[in-house]
Amino acid sequence: MEAPVLGRSALSGRIPVSIVTGFLGSGKTTLVNKLLKRPDMNRVAVIVNELGEQAIDNDLVEVSSEQMMLLNNGCLCCVLRGDLQETLRDLFVKRRNGEIIDFDRVVIETTGLADPAPVMQTLMTDTMLQAQYRLDCVVTLVDAVNGLEQIKTLSEPVKQAALADRLVITKTDLSDEPKISAVEAALRQLNQRAPIRRAVNGEIELAFLIDVALRSTQSRLEDVERWMGADNEHDHGHYGHDEHGHAHRHDTTVTSFCLRYKEPFTWASFSQCMEVLATLRGPDLFRVKGLVNVTGHKGPLIVQGVQHLFHPPIELEKWPSENHETRIVFITRGISEQMVSNLFTAIASVAARAA
Amino acid sequence: MSEAKSMSPQSQAAQTLAFNMKLLAQHEMEGFGGMGEGINMQVAKDGRRIIWMAHESAPKNFTALDVSDPRKPKFVIQTDLPHGNVRSNSLDVVGNTMVVAYQTKGFDNKPAGIDIFDITVPEKPKLISHFDASGKFSRGVHAVWFDDGEFVHMASGAPDFEPTNDKDDQFYRIIDVRNPSKPVEAGRWWMPGTRKGDKAAPPPRLKIDGGYRAHNTNVYSKQRPDRAYVGYIDGGGFILDIKDKSNIKVVSRWKNAPPFNGFVHTVMPLFSKNLLIVTEECVRDNCIDWPKLTWVLNAEDETNPVPISTVPLPSPESFGKRGGRFGSHNLWENYSADCAWRSDNIILATFFNGGLRAYDLSNPYQPQEVAYFVPGTPRLSPKGAVQINDVYVDDRGVVYCQDRFTGGLYIVEWTQ
Predict the structure, then answer these.
(1) d(Cα B271, Cα B337) in Å, to the nearest integer?
(2) Contact with chain A for residue B363, Cβ under 8 A
(3) Residue of chain B nearest A52, judged by CA positions
């Protein structure tokens, strides 16, 4: 028997982070405050913007500092003061020192206007945070009453929805079925792959907000599919302001597509493609998630990027199925499948000649 | 909102802390969960994995558990010591032979030495022989190292050894057990100046006087049968040339006390990396003897080991007053048996109330902490916090660590 390689897994050895985002009034605080009280929040650290008195009332067990409260259900509630980077660093240090519970995951409530991309990027760029945490899931809340209008007229809600791994339609109790369906349809066009859930009174189960990204380098096919979203050959969709006759800015069409390649890449040519894309169109490259077949590697490389930033690739121990195709999901603004595909073809052909 | 208050140290020690590791099972050893620093595994003839553990102190001698299923450890046997003034503390296993150390509370008492057992039938350990190391100035044996089935390397007193200071009674002895029913001494070495009659002057005492004597005496017979890596408490760490067991020579000595507080416990080589890992045991509660570190030394030139880093520990402010000791102690020593796991890249170490911690030495100048497991205070613990004492890692990657007082054995796995 071969001795197991012990050490820290690039995936399971990091604390998963879920980001809850959504436009102003989308019900984030209500949802998070209700979430705080759920029994399944044991060993979860939640970073909130503010804490309503009614959110904790008698549930408080102890206060370890002005900003941190341990609730009865074992949930650590942490009020964000200053910046998120510092808060996440501080949480990890306190956890290691045993000054707070040794939480197993973090849920972050972003501010209403927040673009989730920088929050996601923080987890990739801060060396300490990158070493200790991993992005699990982005959950975007969309209000069933005002959401549709916001998506049509504003760019932030569009980006929030496009970046999401999970979508939650809130305030469905204050809306009607045709309106909710319209919001759902709009979201589906913006983001074909993220599951959509309707929430009533801000009630949502923790399970919908977690365990989306790959947890282990021994991930199975269903884990990969869950992370990359519904795997549909024809899931090519787009949604943009142009098509709906709103302001004619430059091409703001939000598109998602999945590119597939049977031939393995060399790491040089694959990373070159990504670098060109990130350099020239970083702001429009909302999200990239992929399983890449790279020559010389036993398992696929997990690639993930948010705009111009990419996480260092992580190799899975083996392919999760017989299918060893590279598949990369892109969510972009104004970058078509054709453009990306042409770029890959061009670089691959140049690289082939070099070889 | 209620006014800010801090958590009490008690509540902190009570909670389990884990990172990249999770508990599979705990076994309290039938109420005698105070474990020493002898833990080793046997794969019995019927395939069962038996873990053998020496108790920290009387009344129990050693306990064996069947850990074939690490989630369900099964009690196999527990033995008693002949009286309350002796402790076993240390043992080692090679195949179906087990060596157990005996150290008495004062000089001139018995049993003080080692027992050699045939453990072919784990339920019925059969005593093959006893090697007597008792004497007028001897407490017997504190720690044993046995990995080749032929020689026992140990920290021991002897009937003919009179130390210059009572604390310097145990030195390095090699016992030939090739005929296990007739163990005989094959060699010995002590730090010059520690034996009456030595030409060298007795060594100066440290402020916290731990003594100048041997603790762990590691010999990796597969890689370097001609070297012993010896922690000599306040004397520092020694590399000894034991090619000729009857004429042992010093290759090098690494000493950091003063200014540090001594009690060098283990010197472990990582051969492929030319490194030595050296631990200093914390021996005082409440961080009185802090810092007690785990050092990384460059040993490319074995005659001149040079410290290059220490492993990162949580702060003494957080752990120092939790109860009991906080600081370095034992290492997973890359034991050579087939059923043991080995690595020159990842080290595992125990830190009393700081629990069990694992470090990645890919960059030896900056060891990275990659996992830890700190059990909450064990039931009935007299110290108010766990005191993780020693660690074993089997070839399945299962990690075993023990509490010094009541918690018994914790079986842990890495998160995958």
Answers:
(1) 17
(2) no
(3) B1
Taking 60 as the threshold, does the pLDDT of residue B57 lie above it? yes
pLDDT in tens, A204-226: 888 999 999 998 888 888 898 88
Residue in chain A lying closest to B362 (CA): A7
The pLDDT tens digits for A168-190 are 999 998 999 999 999 999 999 89
Range of the domain at B52: 35-344
User: Which regions of A200-325 does DSSP assign to beta strands (E)?
Assistant: 237-239, 254-261, 285-292, 301-306, 309-310, 314-315
> One-letter amino acid identity for B63?
T
Q: In angstroms, rounded to a whole number, what is the distance separating the alpha carbons of residues B194 and B199?
A: 10
Cβ of residue A93 closer than 8 Å to a chain B Cβ: no
User: What mean pLDDT value characterizes chain A?
Assistant: 86
Q: How many CA atoms lie within 13 A of A219 on its CB side?
A: 27
Instruction: State the smallest CA–CA distance between residue B195 and chain A in angstroms.
Output: 44
Is B332 part of any domain? yes
Tell me: the pLDDT tens digits for A114-133? 789 999 999 988 989 998 99
- The confidence band for A241, taking pLDDT boundaries of 50, 70 and 90, is very low
- Asked if residue B15 is part of any domain, the answer here is no
Residues 6+ apart with CB under 8 A from B295: B256, B277, B278, B279, B280, B307, B309, B310
- Number of domains forming the structure of chain B: 1
Half-sphere exposure in the Cβ direction for A103 (13 Å, CA): 32
Does residue B240 form part of some domain?
A: yes
φ, ψ dihedrals at B277, nearest 5° = -105, 125
All domains in chain A, ordered by first residue = 15-209 (3.40.50.300), 224-230+252-354 (3.30.1220.10)
* B245 has a pLDDT exceeding 60: yes
Whether A3 and B397 lie within 8 Å, measured CB to CB: yes
Q: What pLDDT is attached to residue A352?
A: 72
Does the pLDDT of residue A93 top 60, yes or no? Answer: yes
pLDDT tens digits along B84-99: 999 999 999 999 999 9
Tokens found for residue A24: 């102003």
CATH number of the CATH domain containing B243: 2.130.10.10
Tell me how far apart the alpha carbons of residues A280 and A303 are, in angstroms, rounded to a whole number: 19
Chain B residues whose CB is inside 8 A of the A60 CB are 1-2
Q: What is the pLDDT of residues A55-75, one digit of tens each?
A: 566 667 777 676 888 888 889
The answer to whether B416 contacts A7, with C-beta atoms less than 8 Å apart, is: no
Residue B166 maps to a domain: yes
Strands B49-55 and A237-239: what pairing? unpaired
